[in-house]
Amino acid sequence: MSEKNGEIVCVRFFGSWRVLVGGYEESSPYMRRLWQYALRRVPKNVPIKKVLILGLGAGQNISQLHQRFLKCKITAIEWDPVMVEIANQLKMYPQEWRPQILLADVEQAVETLREKFDLILFDIYTANRILPSVNARGFISQMVRLLKSDGYLLFNANIATELSTLEIIGRNLRECGRWRYRWNTIALFRHFGCGMIGDPLPRGYQPFHSVDEYLRRESFRSARYGLGGVPGVHGLRWHHGPLWFERYTTDQEPTITPFDHWRMVIWQPIIRLDTPLGWRRSWIQMNARKTCFAEILEPQNYWAEWSSHAQRHRRRWLKQQEFVGGEVALEEFIEAYRKCRKLMMLKEDFIKILRRKAGAHGGHVHYFIARHVDTGDIRAGLAVLDIPEAQQSVHIISFIQPDAEAWSVGFGLIDVWFKHGIDHHLRFLDFDLFWAPGDPRGWKGYSNFKRQFGVRYIRYPNPLVKFVRGSK
Known about the structure:
The chain is of the alpha+beta class. It has 3 domains: 8-190, Vaccinia Virus protein VP39 (Rossmann fold, 3-Layer(aba) Sandwich), CATH 3.40.50; 208-288 and 462-468, no CATH class; 297-426, Gcn5-related N-acetyltransferase (GNAT) (Aminopeptidase, 3-Layer(aba) Sandwich). The protein has 12 helices and 25 strands. The chain starts with 7 loop residues before the first strand and ends with a strand.
């Protein structure tokens, strides 16, 4: 008998333990299968290292977590000491897998936790009753705070009336899926910005292709380019031979201004999913499918959202003395870039892009390098474009020589970029392209590198198009 849960019954049934509270199953073969089913919704190749269980019960899902995510570290919150003792006696998991158990009310415990978790399992019940505090704004905000920027929250709703709780959580996190398992409903949540089409953007952020000042500078770089639209919703106009195009990146329907030639207008919405009258949804993606950016929220602790791997390499970069970071002029950067053995076929194309950016944006382009102290050779580089009007900086190109990879130089240049952003009062660092299904496989490697810096993703819907008659 428990003061908090009342009568608890443990029954051995066909070699498996069933733990019942108020007649409802707390641990049982059914609950084991339920969590096996739920955990499959989290990709197995995701690096789940820290797990938080809200509601330990008899600890039945501890073994399942360790079997799916090897060497994960588990923290479990349980309010009933009798239930913890039952978990110890029934030995639902090997002793070496014993989690860190916080014996406390869950709403108080989540306030004291400071570390963030890759995966949170929500299973807080007394018999079949969910805690009333779960629907409180404060508790949900604490749960959101504890979830890493790329983490997963699995919620077990065991009665129909709790589906309203899923709607409340959905106002703070993105619901990525909801599934029935017999009498239960399981929902998977992630932070907004994890790569779902339609995710809202942070206040103040806009993709650089939609920034008026950026587009004005771009339109002056060549006679082939011009500016379309109206202030606030500008687009870039260009031509290939006799064919003219206009491209807009915005959620506001562009205003098509008169022009002498027929042209195809490409409107790339950001999170808008409807199709206004007169537009047709393209069946192919003509722009980036997915991009990513990092937001500098705490300048004094800007690396806090980086992965543990990236943080380790940052520390190594700061300690090593073989390379120094710095900034050089365009031609010196290009000379070092030409010596890089990678991307031999595309190198001159990237150099042309870099020269065009430099011609259009002048001093807004910065060329960061890592130079070997003894030889003076540049072994890695990163070129970025600042857009101060939008408080952001955009990745253009980067390179690294093979012999410099062992010295954490790539991570060091990203660290230099973050510090540059802070010094210049920039809020967003835009890494631009990120691999998505349908993109070349060669993008995957560098995309995996980018994901380590606490980035947020934009997954674009297919663009809208229309053909506009010339005004002649």
